[in-house]
What we know:
By secondary structure, the chain is an all-alpha fold. Helices cover 60% and strands 0% of the residues. The radius of gyration is 25 Å and the shape is rod-shaped.
Amino acid sequence: MPxxxxxxxxxxxxxxxxxxxxxxxxxxxxxxxxxxxxPLISHQTALPRG
Length: 50
């Protein structure tokens, strides 16, 4: 029985660690500023062909 209890506690601890890591990653990604979606070249700024 102690081995079963140790295995269950290990599984619970691993699951809690995984959830905590996932939440931390989401928080880090959410804290990063969003990059502007501006094209480097557009039809207005392109050089004329010729």
